[in-house]
Amino acid sequence: MDRRTFIRAAATGAAGTAALAAPAIAQDRQVVKMVTTWPKNFPGLGTGAQRLADRITQVSEGRIEVKLFAAGELVPAFESFDAVSSGAAEMYHAPDYYWQGKHKAFNFFSGVPMGFTCQELNSWIRFGGGQELWDELAGQFNVKCEMTGNTGAQMGGWFRNPITSIDDMKGLKIRIPGLGGEVMRQIGASAVALPGGEIFPALQSGAIDAVEWVGPYNDLAFGFYKILKNYMYPGFQEGGSGIALGMNKGWWDALSETDQAVIRSCCAAELDIMLSEFNYQNSVALNTLLTEHGVQLHRYPDDVLKELAAASENVVAEVGSGDPMSERVYASYKDFRKLIAGWSRLSEQAYLDTRDANLEL
After folding, report:
1. What is the pLDDT of residues 317-344, one digit of tens each?
2. CATH number of 3-151+239-280
3. pTM
4. Domain extents for the chain?
């Protein structure tokens, strides 16, 4: 998808909400609407949403036929939550940190700075009490959520010059949304939240100096390398960004246990497939960026990472305070991060360190 198509998709559809109707039901067959925050066929995310819609339709043998509407086709991207909460649509496909304006605790169920990796997030959701807290939080808005995707660890961003100290980031106008943006503000940068289709024009005009998006797969597609050549890592802001299937709770509760199991199974399958796709495509795209487009890869210096980590802890702690729901979610998140970090350090991290130190790869 080119940038013009993205912009057109994101800018249209505001009038669509009123036209939405209840699902068509005939002889136990439902045609339901999935609205998304992605442009049509957007690599990895938009295509993942379509894959999920098709799988639910197929595995349910057509009892639940899911019709996907990309951002702007029925409702604008950031009205997806309201459409599902109200019952105007049955499903949305999005990262739940987009809904922090509804309740700040939604951040924890997608990704927070210096938070979980994909595997750790899945463990918290499935076995560490996360799903129960998510059900309680989303239920306040008549929504039921299931984890259905993850983009994996993200990159640190694109810059005109390599970042060698925290002072290099002060005053920079960087596109970075959510809590990552709050961290950047704490260390003196100017964070700007822009939808994907507006990023490249903003770079061209000089409205922003730097950009954080997702990772090599999506960054290559958006062509940031044409303007910026310095690619920083690691991405402190999102260690594993969860994607949710949000469903109207009244609609979900009316489903049979069999069809609820179908949807849960389809979400679990797509979660695995999306992460696998991003790991593969990021590997291929990174090689292309480095070998064909002159991109320079740089690791953030340790002292910069230390300051970013300290700012991250402050921002996340603030999000986890102020109301009982946020405090409970934050306490669960923090306890589980402490628990699982020990195993992550001894298992995958130690294995990867050993492999890198002893093999030529």
Report:
1. 999 998 999 999 999 999 999 999 999 9
2. 3.40.190.170
3. 0.89
4. 3-151+239-280
SS (H, E, C) the chain: CCHHHHHHHHHCCHHHHHHCCCCEEECCEEEEEEEECCCCCCCCCHHHHHHHHHHHHHHCCCCEEEEEECCCCCCCHHHHHHHHHHCCCCEEEECHHHHCCCCHHHHHHCCCCCCCCHHHHHHHHHHCCHHHHHHHHHHCCCEEEEEEEECCCCCCEEECCCCCCHHHHCCCEEECCHHHHHHHHHCCCEEECCCHHHHHHHHHHCCCCEECCCCHHHHHHHCHHHCCCEEEECCCCCCCCEEEEEEEHHHHHHCCHHHHHHHHHHHHHHHHHHHHHHHHHHHHHHHHHHHHCCCEEEECCHHHHHHHHHHHHHHHHHHCCCCHHHHHHHHHHHHHHHHHHHHHHHHHHHHHHHHHHHCCC
pLDDT in tens, 197-226: 788 999 999 999 999 989 999 999 999 999
